[in-house]
From TrEMBL:
<keyword id="KW-0479">Metal-binding</keyword>
<dbReference type="InterPro" id="IPR018980">
    <property type="entry name" value="FERM_PH-like_C"/>
</dbReference>
<dbReference type="InterPro" id="IPR011993">
    <property type="entry name" value="PH-like_dom_sf"/>
</dbReference>
<protein>
    <recommendedName>
        <fullName>RING-type E3 ubiquitin transferase</fullName>
    </recommendedName>
</protein>
<feature type="domain" description="RING-type">
    <location>
        <begin position="395"/>
        <end position="429"/>
    </location>
</feature>
<keyword id="KW-0863">Zinc-finger</keyword>
<dbReference type="Pfam" id="PF13920">
    <property type="entry name" value="zf-C3HC4_3"/>
</dbReference>
<dbReference type="InterPro" id="IPR019749">
    <property type="entry name" value="Band_41_domain"/>
</dbReference>
<dbReference type="GO" id="GO:0008270">
    <property type="term" value="F:zinc ion binding"/>
</dbReference>
<dbReference type="InterPro" id="IPR018979">
    <property type="entry name" value="FERM_N"/>
</dbReference>
<dbReference type="Pfam" id="PF09379">
    <property type="entry name" value="FERM_N"/>
</dbReference>
<dbReference type="InterPro" id="IPR013083">
    <property type="entry name" value="Znf_RING/FYVE/PHD"/>
</dbReference>
<dbReference type="InterPro" id="IPR001841">
    <property type="entry name" value="Znf_RING"/>
</dbReference>
<keyword id="KW-0862">Zinc</keyword>
<dbReference type="InterPro" id="IPR019748">
    <property type="entry name" value="FERM_central"/>
</dbReference>
<dbReference type="InterPro" id="IPR014352">
    <property type="entry name" value="FERM/acyl-CoA-bd_prot_sf"/>
</dbReference>
<dbReference type="Pfam" id="PF00373">
    <property type="entry name" value="FERM_M"/>
</dbReference>
Length: 465
């Protein structure tokens, strides 16, 4: 078996064991199964290459063909495709998105540059999600200052007052609702969903190459400038060794010369090429084209074998691992959730029907079931459950009569015969202020005859307090 350590967005580390020949999808499936997440199309696993470049694990290829070094292999579970909050259908998935966005705010990938109002809202929502309703003690102000420090902002008096006002307005809002509102806030930021890569231009200028839902964002750190390129203006993206080339279309429809961008390694160049293609397919296409899903390369051994057998899968490694577009991912998750709800309803209905049938078949005199109606082991199990239920309804003092009297204020129960003889509850030792008669319908004990019990009650307890 192969051991993998998965770091979650909340800094928890899980150990996952997979087969030696397992693909990345197997590892992600095990993580999502433990989390209870069905919307796995939005998620991925990241790792660092030999030159510390951040890479996405290709889920269609084998793990041992992508990572090197000694086990356990270390990956980070991250949101790969950021979608609008209202399209997320599971609370667990929404919580992962919240943790991811909070990490991105702290790392500076999401910037709150559009005024004090949004900063106050975001900090208040984080405080509501993490700490709950606003309190009046001085430690709450320290929490606000701590949150501001995490996102790289100074806590001035006006800003803190705005945060206090915003947080006070969130009184009673559940944490999951606060998380959803935070996602709504950050979803309007210009860098929401953009993945940045460190590249250099042909002139050696340092550029932050951003790939997002609408297109490309090129931040020239050296010249302190930005350039936005929409997907329709991009004719082609290719890669060769450590470089990625973009060929653009001008306003008149003419092709411009290809522009190259150099990265730190060949794996980083492939990662940027993958990112451009997969982002475009996920956000802008109705379905993933065959040219994308079927694109692959081979290692040396596979190349030699393919000379004699073109259909051989030996050494085949897929370039892209995207399976669905954003619309297809939403529909797929919706169908899975609907199927699960239908299965749950069917199982519940079947369980109720099965339970009612068994209750009719089991004789109250504890006689064994008929051979053709249920197995002896099932019959024994039902008998034990019935005995347990009977014992739970017996008086905890005499253990012979049904409970029929509630002791107030603690709420524990005894029989009518024992209740007037005690002044405090035998279970919690609370002083008894009142005794209230109670009737439990739909249950008859086999051990005690009801007429005998009533006679005994009249003899021992002619008057109830």
């Amino acid at each position: 078996m192969m051991r993998c350590h998965i770091c979650l967005p909340d800094a928890q580390v899980w150990e996952i064991e997979v087969d030696q020949k397992a693909t990345g999808q197997t590892c992600l499936d095990k993580v999502c199964e433990r989390l209870g997440v069905l919307e796995d199309d939005y998620l991925g696993l990241q790792y660092r290459g030999s030159k510390h470049e951040v890479l996405w694990l290709n889920l269609r290829n084998r793990l041992d063909h992508q990572v090197s070094g000694h086990q356990p292999y270390r990956f980070q579970l991250r949101v790969k495709f950021c979608v609008q909050p209202h399209t997320i259908q599971q609370d667990t998935t929404r919580h992962l998105f919240f943790q991811q966005m909070w990490q991105d705010l702290q790392a500076g990938k999401l910037r709150l540059d559009d005024g004090e109002t949004r900063v106050a809202k975001v900090v208040a929502l984080v405080a509501q999600a993490e700490f709950g309703d606003q309190t009046t003690n001085c430690y709450q102000l320290k929490d606000y200052e701590h949150i501001l420090q995490k996102i790289g902002l100074q806590a001035d008096q006006n800003l803190v007052e705005s945060i206090v006002q915003e947080h006070g307005a969130l009184h009673g809002v559940p944490p999951h609702t606060a998380e959803y509102r935070l996602l709504q806030e950050v979803a309007t930021l210009p860098t929401f969903g953009i993945e940045f890569h460190e590249v250099r231009s042909a002139h050696g200028e340092k550029i932050q190459f951003g790939v997002g839902p609408e297109g490309l964002l090129l931040r020239n750190v050296t010249a302190d400038s930005e350039e936005n390129l929409s997907y329709p203006s991009i004719h082609m993206a290719t890669h060769r060794e450590r470089e990625v080339y973009l060929q653009l279309i001008d306003d008149s429809g003419e092709l411009l010369p290809a522009v190259g961008y150099k990265l730190v390694s060949r794996k980083a160049a492939v990662a940027l090429y993958r990112c451009i293609t997969e982002m475009h397919s996920f956000y802008r296409c109705d379905t993933v084209s065959g040219d994308v899903s079927n694109q692959f390369c081979r290692d040396l051994k596979g190349t030699l074998v393919s000379i004699f057998n073109e259909n051989s899968d030996l050494g085949k490694r897929y370039i892209f691992d995207i399976k669905r577009t954003s619309r297809e991912a939403y529909d797929h998750a919706r169908r899975k959730l609907y199927s699960m709800s239908q299965s749950t309803q069917s199982l519940t209905a079947a369980g109720l029907h099965h339970g009612s049938t068994q209750s009719m078949d089991v004789d109250r005199d504890n006689n064994p079931c008929d051979g053709h109606q249920c197995a002896s082991s099932e019959c024994q199990r039902l008998k034990e459950r019935l005995e347990t239920l009977e014992d739970s309804l017996l008086c905890c003092i005499c253990m012979s009569h049904l409970v029929s009297m509630v002791l107030c204020p603690c709420g524990h129960m005894t029989c009518s015969a024992c209740a007037p003889k005690i002044t405090e509850c035998p279970l919690c030792r609370t002083e008894i202020e009142q005794r209230q008669k109670v009737f439990i319908p739909g249950f008859r004990m086999q051990k005690v005859d009801s007429s005998d019990e009533m006679d005994e009650e009249e003899e021992l307890c002619p008057e109830v307090v």
